Amino acid sequence: MAPVEQDVLAVREQLFHERVRECIICALLFASLYILCHFIITHFKKHTDFTGVHDDEDAAVNRIALGLCTFTLAVALGAVLLLPFSIISNEVLLSFPQNYYIQWLNGSLIHGLWNLVFLFSNMSLVFLMPFAYFFTESEGFAGSKKGIMARVYETSVVLLLLTLLVLGMVWVASAIVGNDAASRQSLYDLWEYYLPYLYSCISLFGVLLLLLCTPFGLSIMFTVTGKLLVKPRLLEDLDEQLSCTRFEEAAVSHRI
């Protein structure tokens, strides 16, 4: 075998090992986030009557919906923690450039994590969350055999109709705003244009909702905190309180 071919095989083998290592690290990180989100959801979710032991079908539906919600929360938490993780990993690599044990914190891993978060975010937003909601509300088509698959069929049909409705509304909006070939061509490319645009719009709506609800939440939090906490009596003026008490006593006596 020629030396050039040996070098090419060595480079390919090294790239393969790096890809396998990155896949294992991503799987471990996501598994950790999934377990954490599962404990969070099971801690805060309320017990419902349809999860009883005697109703296996509803209990299975609830478990599937819980798994989908846990997956979505893990993806959301990963999206929130990805930027701090990128900054910290970059600082660690700059501080210890020759350390062998932290070389896995490279740019290829961060780029792969960004791609996975973007993929799973769109999948959770477009498919998983609507499917979980419609799946818990479904009962199967009339006349069909009851079971999990009947609910899956009904949920898939409803989700397909909802997708067609959203796409139709987008086509109508595109025809109203700009009826040119470029706007129509952009709608054909769902992955490169439509899904990022939809993701950005929903993110903007979430940020606006956060900015709208945060002041009210903070005001309610401070109001509740002021009611629960006892004010310290060290800085109170006793002479002023005695004067107020005398005035109140005089006013009551005058009324009597």
TrEMBL record:
Membrane topology: Multi-pass membrane protein
Record family assignment: Belongs to the LIMR family.
Location within or outside the cell: Cell membrane; Endoplasmic reticulum membrane
Keyword entries, A-Z: Cell membrane, Endocytosis, Endoplasmic reticulum, Membrane, Receptor, Transmembrane, Transmembrane helix, Wnt signaling pathway
GO cellular component: endoplasmic reticulum membrane; plasma membrane
Principal location: membrane
GO BP terms: receptor-mediated endocytosis; Wnt signaling pathway
Protein name, UniProt field: LMBRL protein
Annotated GO MF terms: transmembrane signaling receptor activity
Record InterPro entries: LIMR, LMBR1-like_membr_prot
Listed transmembrane segments: 24-44, 64-88, 108-136, 157-177, 197-224
Pfam families: LMBR1
PANTHER family on file: LIPOCALIN-1 INTERACTING MEMBRANE RECEPTOR LIMR, PROTEIN LMBR1L
